[in-house]
Specification:
Helix content is 59%, strand content 0%. By secondary structure, it is mostly helical. α3 crosses α5 and α4 runs antiparallel to α5. The chain is elongated and about 50 Å long.
Length: 90
């Protein structure tokens, strides 16, 4: 996969061109990017390709951090309902 295949709409490319973009804006763009990929797309592979193309050149850009966060395993929420949740010792 090359970087143009990994970013077919150019959303990540454009985020690097925006001066003063915030981390929150980058997260929103990242979500739009992920949702715009084909269903069968390998999102971790695509993110890795974009990291190699953009993030290594601009490691201090907020989107670089967001791309790296996108590769991390998701946090599994822990919910305790009913009496166990009300009586939690956590």
């Amino acid at each position: 996969m090359n970087w143009t295949d990994a970013d077919p709409k150019g959303l990540i490319r454009e985020s690097y061109a925006i001066d003063g973009i915030t981390a929150g804006e980058c997260r929103s763009i990242f979500l739009d990017w992920a949702l715009s990929l084909p269903v069968a797309a390998d999102i971790p592979l695509a993110a890795s390709v974009l990291i190699a193309h953009y993030a290594e050149a601009e490691p201090d850009h907020p989107m670089s951090s967001v791309l790296h966060e996108g590769l991390a395993a998701p946090h599994h929420p822990r919910r305790r309902g009913g009496r166990a949740g009300r009586m939690s010792q956590d």
